Amino acid sequence: MNKIIRIGTRDSELALWQAKKVEDTLKELGYRTQLVPVKSTGDLVLDKPLYEMGITGVFTKTLDVAMINKQIDIAVHSMKDVPTALPQGIVQGAVLKRASTADILLHKGDTSFLSENATAVIASGSLRRKAQWLNRYPNHTVVDLRGNVNTRMQKLQDNEWNGAVFASAGLDRINKKPKNFVPLDWMIPAPAQGAMVVVVNMDDNFALDAVAQLNDYETEMTTHIERQFLRTLEGGCTAPIGALAMYSEHDDTIDFKGVLLSLDGKIKFEIHKVVPIEEWKKLGFTAAKEIMAQGGEALINELRLHFKR
Ligand SMILES: NCc1[nH]cc(CCC(=O)O)c1CC(=O)O
Question: Are residues 107 and 168 in the same domain?
Answer without folding.
Answer: yes
